[in-house]
Amino acid sequence: MPDLIQRQGALDRFAAAPRNIPAAALSVLPDSARLSFRGRPSAIDAAGAAFGVALPRDACRFAVKRGRTAFWLGPDEWLLQSEGEDPATLFADMSGKLAGQSCSLVDVSHRSQAFALSGPQAAYVLNHGCPLDLSLATFPVGMCTRTIYAKATIMLSRPASDIFHIDAWRSFAPYVWQLLDEARSELA
Amino acid sequence: MSGFRHSTAGRVDRNKPVRFSFDGKTYQGFAGDTLASALLANGVHLVGRSFKYHRPRGIVTAGSDEPNALVGIGADEAHYAPNMRATQVEIYDGLVAESQNRWPSLGFDVGAVNETFAPFLSAGFYYKTFMWPPKAWAKLYEPLIRRAAGLGRAPTQADADRYTQVYAHCDVLVVGSGPAGLAAALAAATTGGKVFVCDEQSEMGGSLLAETTATIDGLSARDWVARALADLAARPNVTLMPRTTAFGWYPHNFLGLCERITDHMAKADPKLPRERLWQIRAKEVVLATGALERPLVFPDNDRPGVMMAEAARIYANRFGVKPGDKAVIFTACDSAYRAALDLMAAGVAIATIADLRAAPCGPWIDRVRSAGIAIRAGTVVTGTTGRLRIDSVSLATVGIDGNPGSSENIACDLLLMSGGFTPSVHLFSQSRGKLVYDEALQAYLPGISVERERSAGACRGIYDLDKVLSNGAASGTGAAKAAGFAAADTITFSTTADSVGTDGFIGVTPFGGPSSKARAWIDFQNDVTAKDVRLAIREGFRSIEHVKRYTTTGMATDQGKTSNMNALGLVSETLKVPVPQVGLTTFRPPYTPTTFGIFAGQSRGDMFDPLRKTPIHDWAAEQGAAFEDISLWKRAHYFPKRGEDIHAAVARECKATRGAVGIFDASTLGKIEVVGKDAAEFMNRMYTNAWTKLEPGRLRYGVMLREDGFVMDDGVVGRMATDRFHITTTTGGAPRVLSMMEDYLQTEWPGLDVWLTSTTEEWAVIAVQGPLARKVLEPLVEGIDLSREAMPHMSVREGRICGVPTRLFRVSFTGELGFEVNVPAGYGRAVWEAIFAAGQPHGMTPYGTETMHVLRAEKGFIIVGQETDGTVTPDDAGLGWAIGKAKKDFVGKRSLARPAMTASDRKQLVGLLTVDSKTVLEEGAQIVADPAQPIPMTMIGHVTSSYWSATLDRSIALALVRGGRARVGTRLSVPMPSGPITVEVVEPIFYDAKGARLDA
Q: A1 to each of A5, A8, B674, B784, B834, how far by Cα in Å?
């Protein structure tokens, strides 16, 4: 049996030594267990109870509790994220609690790579590829949405006024990271 | 005064001298100069050669409407930009500029020989003169014309500069920062809304920057501008954007702005982009784009030294430059009188003012008269002389018959002209707003706005300063209010400024009747004369759209900013129809020429598109794999060893896989997880196959059709549980399969309890294929019995491999015993390396997509998109067995029942073996029954896949042939340039037809 296998991130190559640009800092976020939950309205409360975070019913909002986050992605779709947890454990636990419910639970822990862009110029840098109005009035703290960055789809969330989290599918993550890194060059 | 520079006047910084070069000669200017103002300060008027006739040309305007002074800028090829307007280029120490369209030099240009041929180069000459012989067009005439005519040259090296693109949102975008724009910005800013103000010039203030007498709120225009800008700059809700051209209006108040960031810097900070594209969504837009002075059309009006009167005033007042020593002014409006006074103050002798109007009067005329300047009413210019610079003007009084009388010659080195002003309605027109012709102003003005837009000031025909300011302020307030911001109180201004009225002239001034041979330029940049336009009309063109295309008037890079109205006026006068009936050409983006750089932005090189790589990519790269692009993915094509070409590498990989074991990265396969109690029912409806009876733990090859019955995608599907399927799709098809499934689910079958989740990137997929595959994997797995009995072909098990979770498929796309190891992507490379290490004692060989293609073709497995092209039914592809005949319905079922879909002469998949086994057919080659038939032959099919099979030591091919299955055993031909190739039609399977190897 080979040595214990370590999980590799899609941005390991870039994350090792990112440029220090405090106005718009890039950093890789810790590994998480991520489950895609989709289901009928009747299953939503049960899913919230099983996850330990009530699933937000407001469009494009996320809720956080003790390291667990539920992102609203659509009227019947949430992304459930638990930092540092073993995906298999979370999946088994929730599957058991949701048995018999009209819903789908799929482990997507490795599908995407999350990273943060933070600093006073974070919104400006993000607007190099993301066409949304990122002012606090229209994209407040606590908001999340699927959107684009240049030619890639991302999930964008704002945990604090100067911090954005970007979740991109693995093979798109280097593209998004490198473009953001290039865009923030003028702030170096 | 030294030379042509005033000692104090203007806004240039005399403490900052700047040295630059033009055509290799070094000149000095000051910070704040444009290249045009600096050249004029050095007495240089000749700056270019015209497009067609290579006529010497000088600086005509002081702004972005400049038709003549196009120059190439850049000290080296990687920073070279052609066709820059010298009137907009800001000079800096070390600027290198050159003139264009001349050889060997600007002063002596061989191309000027075109002047001699001018009678043959009239409107539409290329449609006529060069018609015969037809073959000479492409080889001789066109290349010659292209070389002789032209603008600047393209740089020979890739652009070394950075360009960026940014999206932004605001409540009010004000385009233009002249008096109307500043008033609008001030009014909107006080409401608290987010206001952007952009202006194409380096300094904001517009016409006020050249104003010397008017006052606003008791301040000089210059001081008022400074105060207004300071006020705006201090507000956190206002962003001022000088050097920023709003070049395009796109739907829903989305505007494209080009900000020039480093072009004016001697040493640009390398961190900064050269230009930044602003993509702005504005709730409301105020257009305050001003008006452009119109030239007068008279004989030889294109000599260096002929300039717009207002431009000369700007050079004198704003740059402290004297554009000449002795000027004649030719005008049809009062503003040229204002210019005359300012130029006289700057030291220019005004020889005379020739006024087209019969009886000009008013305060400006009185003032000029009392200054001692001669005024000739009802007078026109009938010609000019001077080779590289104007040296005299002929003036004549227009008689009662409307024709000029005898001419008088006046020496001068400057001829200023003014035909009045044309409102700059380009952006309004781009926003799809309809223009309305104003007879009194002889101008098209903005009509009803289509977008959330307001035009303010001169761009809507309002010229008097007090009215411009109040109109600007009202527009700013109105825009802010419409964006949801209430105005505190109305802003008012008190001004002292004399009106210059609204007189003007459009068309061609009378200089000798329609038969005159004199050439009077309408469009300087495209070298179109009044004669050309008259010729077009004589030849039957009526609409301005047709006249424009035939003569090319207004079609140059300046989009006819100075020429459109005069062309319209001439057509209107000649045809004796009102201007609105002649029409108006449509304005299109960009307002001024815009670099390719900002449209490309960061999308260059490796960042042009997302470059998708699998978790195993880097391993393959380290092994020296050659890669190929499959949709956005990079896939390992083959793994050459030292000295191997693709053929040798693929032959070795094929043999190793068939003989021992191969390893292949299949991670790019699309994957979708289908979950819910109605999952099997959903699968039944989406795929042709039947799924109800597929047990958990088993795999099935599925075929998916479009509504029209043609094959859309295929892939192996695993049933993980009664309510859970793991679908695989083709690499390129994943997004469209998911989107079609979602579409059906949401719109056709919302009642099904089933949900779809893309898992393409969740799983790394490692294919282990070959007779020794089981031996390699067995020691690595936990909780899975890989034996033939426990895990037959087409089954799936969950367990662990190398300590991590896996969905292990027993499946084969090679015809050998095979497994596909799915592991969470983050473990992909480590598991791959562990399997590869375990495989070494068994001769495990990595193989790429080319070997995968050969191995599957030997088995006759199709590839969707290669054997299919969107017109292939399952039966055509030999997949009739995959259709669940007993099923009530599935997507495409009804289409399959159409007679044409079951016709016996449809193109069907067959195998082809060349009679000469060494000949490899070309993919895409056409197939005929009889190669001796005359051309055009009847084509009965085409080659879809063709390879050299190392295993079989011969070539093999798959093809779609009409009625192909009935032709098995016959011979057909593949005609090629080197002669027909004879092929034998066979069953589309070349190796292990019984399938014993994959059941091993």
A: 10, 19, 33, 15, 9
Q: Mark residue B391 as left, alpha or beta (left: phi above 0; alpha: psi -120 to 50; beta: remaining).
A: alpha
Residue B687 has pLDDT above 70, yes or no: yes
Q: State the architecture of B669-759 in CATH terms.
A: 2-Layer Sandwich (3.30)
Contact B287, B176 (CB under 8 A): yes
Question: Which candidate in B757, B781, B782 is best for mutational testing of the A interface (most A CBs within 10 A)?
Answer: B757
Q: Does A36 touch chain B (CB under 8 A)?
A: yes
Each residue of B381-399: pLDDT tens digit? 999 999 999 999 999 999 9
3-state secondary structure of B79: helix
Q: Testing the interface with B: which of A110, A127, A175, A182 to mutate, by most B Cβ within 10 A?
A: A110
Pairing of strands B375-377, B349-355: parallel
Handedness of CA B495, B497, B498, B502 (dihedral sign): negative
- Domain, as residue range, for A16: 11-30+111-188
Structure tokens at B9: 């006047």
The rounded distance, in Å, linking the Cα atoms of B583 and B542 is: 10
Contact list, B826 vs chain A (CB under 8 Å): 7-9, 31, 110
Task: Using CA coordinates, name the residue in chain B closest to A3.
Answer: B802
Neighbours of B630 (CB within 10 A): 15
Give me the residue from B169, B633, B805 closest to A88, CB to CB: B805
A–B interface: beta-carbon pairs under 8 A: 136
Hey, how many other C-beta atoms are within 10 angstroms of the C-beta on B605?
8
Flag if A104 and B805 touch (Cβ within 8 Å): no
Q: Which two tokens stand for residue B684?
A: 């039944």
CB contact under 8 A, A109 and B761: no
pLDDT over 90 at B146, yes or no: no
Ramachandran category for residue A67: left, alpha or beta (phi over 0 → left; psi -120 to 50 → alpha):
left
A152 interfacial to chain B (CB closer than 8 Å): yes
CB pair distance less than 8 Å for B763 and A110: yes
Residue B504 has what pLDDT?
96
Superfamily of domain B164-291+423-496: FAD/NAD(P)-binding domain (3.50.50.60)
The one-letter amino acid at B128: K
Percent over 70 (pLDDT), chain B: 97
Domain boundary (A51, A83, A108) is at A108
Q: Give A152's contacts in chain B (Cβ within 8 Å).
A: 610
Distance from CA of A66 to the nearest CA of B (A): 25
What the block records as the tokens of B762 is 């969740």
More confident residue, B116 or B493: B493
Q: Is the pLDDT of residue A1 over 50?
A: no
- Chain A's closest residue to B604, CA to CA, is A179
Residues in A touching B633 (Cβ below 8 Å) = 171
Tell me whether strands B326-331 and B349-355 are parallel, antiparallel or unpaired. parallel
Instruction: Please state the φ and ψ torsions of residue B48, each to the nearest 5 degrees.
Output: -170, 175
In our burial notation (b when 16+ CB lie closer than 10 A, e otherwise), range B117-128 reads ebeebbbbbeee
Distance (Å, rounded) from C-alpha B222 to C-alpha B219?
Answer: 8
Asked if B837 and A127 come within 8 Å (Cβ–Cβ), the reply is no
Q: Is residue A44 part of a domain?
A: yes
ipTM topping 0.85: yes
CB contact under 8 A, A175 and B611: yes
What CATH number is given to the structural domain containing A185? 3.30.1360.120
> What pLDDT is stored for residue B144 in this prediction?
66
Look at residue A68 and tell me whether its pLDDT is greater than 60: yes
Compute chain B's Rg from CA coordinates: 38
pLDDT reading at B439 higher than 70: yes
pTM: 0.94
**Option in A105, A111, A179 nearest B759 (CB):** A111
Interface membership of A109 toward B (CB under 8 Å)? yes
